[in-house]
Amino acid sequence: MPIITVSRGSYSYGKQVAEKVAEKLGYECVSRDILIEASEEFNVPEIKLDRAIRHAPSCFEKFTFKKERYIAYIRAALLAHLAGDNVVYHGLAGHYFVTGVAHVLKVRILAEEEDRVRLVMEREGISRDKALHYLQVVDEARRQWGLQLYGIDTNNPRLYDLVLHIKKFSADDAAEVICLAAGMHCFQPTPESQKAIDDLLLAARIKAALIDHHPRANVKADGGAVYIGLEGASSRDREKIQQIVARFPEVKNLDLNVEPFMVPD
What we know:
265 residues; alpha/beta; Rossmann fold; 5-stranded parallel sheet
């Protein structure tokens, strides 16, 4: 069965839709759990990971690579779940991490602005103006996050296989449509698509292990072969990288290039 990622804005019913889909299909439903797991595995406070996933990097963070570190940890934790299939992930960033995996059904949930404003007013106990301002700030922060880290606008419908608008559709209706799409042949796993996500997971785990010392390292995996590109690494750096990669028994071959290069497609 396919992996399902549900992208949504705040107060857009995406959480409800994702939970209903998981219940109907008997899938695991994952969201903030990933932050908790990454926090524990990499010994980083959950609040810092949460901020990394919600906000665009500051000028200071661009130089210190702090946000990139946290994103690397979250990516590794999320892909560990997704590689097992039968998962619905809802929240920001899920679809970024599974590019090129054919058995991922990418869904975007939209809702009417007035419905979102009303929900914020009810849950937060604030005025309409404040609720509207809150949504505008959060939406723009999420859009900037995708643009600055990946050069991708989360509002672009081309990123998704399904875009569902909660208006005439109810959350139950949307869940039914997603479940129907999930059963289609084009979203079923194949040996090639499973290899693609296994490769992404291995590369993500190695990147997370390297990022404290080598945040600029480019990592790609291909069937047990690992390619690492790093500009200007010393012989000591090379030795340390080789030691870190040796911790991963799945790695059959390491191609380490210390000059600027394009990671093979």
